[in-house]
């Protein structure tokens, strides 16, 4: 029996508890800040050419580091060359994030789409197999989630969908739901008629909505989802407050 309870005990910060000013997204500081607040984090991993996993979201480092470098081409022996948004934080190694968090970590690990499915997934498993915190994996790439179903079905596995998938969801969702432990769906354009009947038929399955930022999207998620991945920024007037996000599970 898989341990899913921890996924229902705290909400999850999108790329850590960041503000993209002094605390950048997907930084060691953002993940520590989330853990210290008793929150989980969602993060993104790539496998680099030197066989290391780094935590980064975009297909290049341009937005966060000002350099048009592909994540898989990063030389991890020189991560100091990739400061995040001009701060002291640099693109982190996944192993360093895990060491920082220790048993406090509650992580949804998104494996970014790659042509190297087997080597990437094996590297992620090797990094996490002895980790003392709680973790699960998710991906947009069906080849990646299928790899985990085949090789490590004991792991909690989630399928990510984006808004462009919605025209296909009625058929694919029912098929994929059989092997997934949760679905991660966007809060922007939810279609309740797609999800509520399936949730009723399979109440053991979870739906996690991303990315909740505003009061309106919070209420949408309340109607449909079992949990949320959220962002909050007190400098943005339309953003939900941290305490509001924390209240989702109450």
TrEMBL record:
One of its GO terms (molecular function) is phosphoric diester hydrolase activity. Residues 9-240 form the GP-PDE domain. One of its GO terms (biological process) is lipid metabolic process. PROSITE patterns: GP_PDE (PS51704). This is GP-PDE domain-containing protein. It comes from Candidatus Caccalectryoclostridium excrementigallinarum.
């Amino acid at each position: 029996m898989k341990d899913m309870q921890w996924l229902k005990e705290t909400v999850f910060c999108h790329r850590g508890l960041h503000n993209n000013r002094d605390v950048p997204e997907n930084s060691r500081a953002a993940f520590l800040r989330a853990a210290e607040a008793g929150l989980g984090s969602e993060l993104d991993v790539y496998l680099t050419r030197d066989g290391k996993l780094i935590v980064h979201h975009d297909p290049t480092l341009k937005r966060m580091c000002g350099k048009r470098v592909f994540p898989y081409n990063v030389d991890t022996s020189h991560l100091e060359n990739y400061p995040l948004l001009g701060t002291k934080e640099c693109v982190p190694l996944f192993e360093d994030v895990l060491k920082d968090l220790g048993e406090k970590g509650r992580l949804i690990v998104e494996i970014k789409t790659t042509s190297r499915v087997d080597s990437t997934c094996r590297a992620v498993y090797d990094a996490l197999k002895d980790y003392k915190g709680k973790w699960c994996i998710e991906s947009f790439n069906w080849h990646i989630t299928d790899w985990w179903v085949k090789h490590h079905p004991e792991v909690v596995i989630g399928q990510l969908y984006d808004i462009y998938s919605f025209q296909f969801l009625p058929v694919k969702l029912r098929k994929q739901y059989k092997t997934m432990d949760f679905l991660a769906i966007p809060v922007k354009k939810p279609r309740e008629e797609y999800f509520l009947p399936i949730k009723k038929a399979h109440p053991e399955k979870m739906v996690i909505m991303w990315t909740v930022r505003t009061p309106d999207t919070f209420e949408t998620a309340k109607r449909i989802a079992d949990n949320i991945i959220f962002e909050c920024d007190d400098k943005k007037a339309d953003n939900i407050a941290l305490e509001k996000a924390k209240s989702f599970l109450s």
